[in-house]
Amino acid sequence: MSNSNVAVHVKVLGGIFAVTHALGVVGAAVWLVLAGLIATAGSTAGGAHGDPSLAGAGLIIGGIIGIFPLIFLLSALAGLLSGIGLLQIKPWSRRLCIILSILELIVFPVGTALGVYGLLVMFNEETVAMFNANRIY
After folding, report:
1. 25 half-sphere exposure, CB direction, 13 A CA radius
2. What is the pLDDT of residues 3-53, one digit of tens each?
3. Could you write out the DSSP letters of every residue in the chain?
4. Cβ-based neighbour number of residue 53 at 10 Å
5. What is the 3-state secondary structure (H, E, C) of 102-129?
6. pTM across the whole model
7. Cis peptide bond upstream of 109, omega within 30
């Protein structure tokens, strides 16, 4: 890849990361709201029937369901941050993109493709040089 091609690939990767992970933030937020509604419905139903164990079960189930979107939300926020950093050629964003690209590999098939593309771009010698040139000492 030539220097101009590397810059284009970094910008494309940054845009993909920013857009896909912004959508992930929205999806995780919706999922968290639904988990809260499930917990509320369960506890309300238990309270209406006078059964405290049913109310507690609703809260537990809502809490368990809420853990997964919370993890997904943190991951999506990290991806959004990485994408924005890549667009601005921030040196820290390269490391974050590498970590997230490795994690993306398990999300078959689209995440695998994004992860491979991210790793190929981030480990390119010209990309490393470009990010090192922007490093502030």
Report:
1. 13
2. 679 999 999 999 999 999 999 999 999 998 888 887 777 767 666 666 666
3. --HHHHHHHHHHHHHHHHHHHHHHHHHHHHHHHHHHHHHHHHHHHHHHTT-HHHHHHHHHHHHHHHHHHHHHHHHHHHHHHHHHHHHTT-HHHHHHHHHHHHHHTTSTTHHHHHHHHHHHHHTSHHHHHHHHHT---
4. 8
5. HHHCCCCCHHHHHHHHHHHHHCCHHHHH
6. 0.84
7. yes
